[in-house]
Amino acid sequence: MRYKSIVVRAGHGTPDDLLENGWSIVDTDVETVNGAKASAKRYLTREYARLAEMSDPFDYAQVLGDGEVIYDYFRTPDAEDKRPA
Prior knowledge:
four-stranded antiparallel sheet, 4 helices, 4 strands, 33% helix, globular
């Protein structure tokens, strides 16, 4: 399906928290759904948190097509979290 607008948004907290208090990042410079999905997943990584100088990665990200949520992503422990310090 083709969308006129694709948006990625991410933030700290639960989906309800973010709807009430706002999103930390909203990316409207996305051209494809696949690109949006990759961006959403990246926003949940420790690597992105380090680059953005955040203490913790985002907890939740969404991809919207024409204003409707088409993908939800929740942060789960990744390989970096499992490495010994």
